[in-house]
Design goal:
Elements: H1 6-58, E1 77-82, E2 88-91, H2 103-111, E3 114-118, E4 128-137, E5 140-149, H3 151-199, H4 217-267, H5 271-302, E6 311-314, H6 315-332, E7 337-340, E8 346-349, H7 351-368, E9 373-380, E10 383-389, H8 422-432, E11 436-441, E12 448-455
Parallel strand pairs: 7-9
Antiparallel strand pairs: 1-2, 1-5, 3-4, 4-5, 6-8, 9-10, 10-12, 11-12
Helix pairs in contact: 1-3, 4-5, 5-8, 6-7, 7-8
């Protein structure tokens, strides 16, 4: 069944459901018609019993002459009067004077009227329904039995069954054919989307699935798939950009490294010249190693695989550790690095990763800023913000919205080295700690203010 086309499976399921519905409806109609026929016959017998009772009370022995009486229809209806012992007192001619019921039914009828079905009545080879009711005639108690054949009911129900047996399969066939075409109409939209999806590839970005204006599940499916294609296209574009930018950044140090080694091999005439070339090559190698490590961290972050070892940390100790690593550079540049941690704040995080992020910020402040650099911890809205402020010119106009993007560098900083990954690494580490990274230009004191916000340790 699972190998059949979906259209056939939908049509088969629709046909099965229609068969159940038609069978249930046919059964219900048959039961209701049968009940209505029974009720109609019972009402007819009651009314006839009233007329016959009035007749036999006023004119005893008149049933034998009922051929002239309108209340009795010969061949289909009959009546009989029995005494309390069950003997026939009066009867329509078709019964031949034989009692319709026995003494037990007579005694029961004396206590109240009731109905009874019999397989046949004397003179009739048809099932019949009897109505028994007590009457009085000339001051004596009697039981009046009025009956009618059930053959008309049986014929009506037989005709209804025949009609249902004919109409049911015909309706099922028509409904199944209709279901097949309706399923095909609905699945035609799916087939159109499938063909369009088969033509979509990374080589032809921008193509999307057609969205049918049906307002149903198919429209929502197409909208959801197009949103997924948007995300995939953005991811592919990010990967392409990442590979292109990484290749561009790797090309320069590799070219310098090769040039230095070639120069040392071909032109070095003394040990000092060879050592100078090797020192330059070592510096470029270090740059390559750092760039590869940064690229690996960013790639891991995009895959959600940044490994952290969180522990309770004191904000001041973290800031002091970072400052101590850069004191020699600050001294060479005749710069001062200060720490401001008035509240003795604590946070939960990976020490090495947070020191890496703060180190990138402090490196940028010493490289591009001026004056005193301040490392500051601030408690705000359940988070600890670790700020790095300088007194330089700040970020160029229009650069702040792109400051934390990969390989993003202001034009004037391209001559000073760097791959444009420092702030991107800071953002990756902040997000890995369920935090954020942000930057601004200090409009009051001047300079750049860059920080990471990490959840507070409680």
């Amino acid at each position: 069944m699972s190998r059949l086309p979906l259209r056939l499976r939908v049509a088969a399921a629709f046909a099965l459901g229609m068969a159940v519905v038609l069978a249930a409806c046919g059964t219900l109609v048959y039961v209701l018609v049968a009940r209505d026929l029974d009720g109609s016959l019972d009402r007819e017998l009651r009314l006839r019993a009233q007329d016959v009772a009035a007749l036999v009370t006023s004119r005893p022995g008149s049933l034998g002459r009922s051929g002239n009486v309108a209340t009795i229809e010969r061949g289909e209806n009959f009546a009989q009067v029995l005494d309390v012992s069950g003997h026939v007192v009066d009867s329509t001619p078709t019964l031949g004077g034989k009692a319709l019921v026995g003494p037990v039914q007579v005694r029961q009828a004396q206590r109240g009227e009731y109905f009874v079905d019999v397989p046949s009545a004397p003179g009739l080879d048809e099932p019949a329904r009897l109505f028994l009711t007590p009457i009085e005639s000339s001051g004596q108690p009697y039981v009046l039995v009025v009956g009618g054949t059930r053959e008309n009911r049986a014929e009506t129900l037989a005709g209804l069954r025949t009609d249902l047996y004919l109409a049911g399969p015909l309706a099922l066939v028509l409904a199944s054919v209709l279901g097949y075409f309706v399923a095909g109409s609905g699945l035609r939209v799916v087939e159109t989307m499938r063909q369009k999806a088969a033509a979509i590839s990374a080589d032809h970005p921008g193509h999307r699935l057609p969205v049918p204006p049906t307002g149903d599940e198919l429209e929502r499916l197409a909208t959801t798939l197009n949103a997924m294609l948007d995300r995939l296209e953005q991811a592919v574009e990010r990967e392409r950009s990442f590979v292109a930018d990484a290749g561009h950044e790797l090309r320069t140090p590799l070219a310098l490294l090769r040039a230095e080694l070639d120069d040392a091999l071909q032109h070095a005439e003394s040990g000092e010249q060879l050592r100078a070339a090797l020192r330059t090559a070592s510096e470029e190698t270090d740059r390559l190693v750092q760039l590869a490590a940064d690229l690996l961290l960013i790639a891991s972050a995009e895959g959600g695989r940044v490994e952290l070892h969180p522990e309770p940390l004191a904000a001041r100790e973290l800031l002091e550790s970072v400052r101590n690593r850069f004191l020699w550079r600050a001294g060479d540049a005749r710069r001062t690095v200060e720490i401001d941690d008035p509240d003795g704040l604590g946070l939960q995080g990976d020490r090495l990763r947070l020191e890496q992020a703060l180190g990138n910020l402090l490196d940028n402040a010493l490289r591009y800023g001026r004056g005193t650099v301040r490392l500051q911890a601030i408690h705000l809205n359940g988070r600890v913000e670790l700020h790095v402020r300088d007194e330089g010119p700040g970020f160029p106009d229009g650069f702040l919205p792109h400051a934390f993007e990969r390989f993003s560098r202001p034009p004037e900083s391209r001559q000073r080295g760097g791959a444009g990954l420092g702030l991107a690494i800071v953002s990756v580490i902040a997000r890995a700690h369920s935090g954020t990274a942000d930057a601004r230009n200090d409009s009051l004191q001047g300079g750049a203010d860059v920080w990471v916000a990490i959840p507070e340790w409680r």
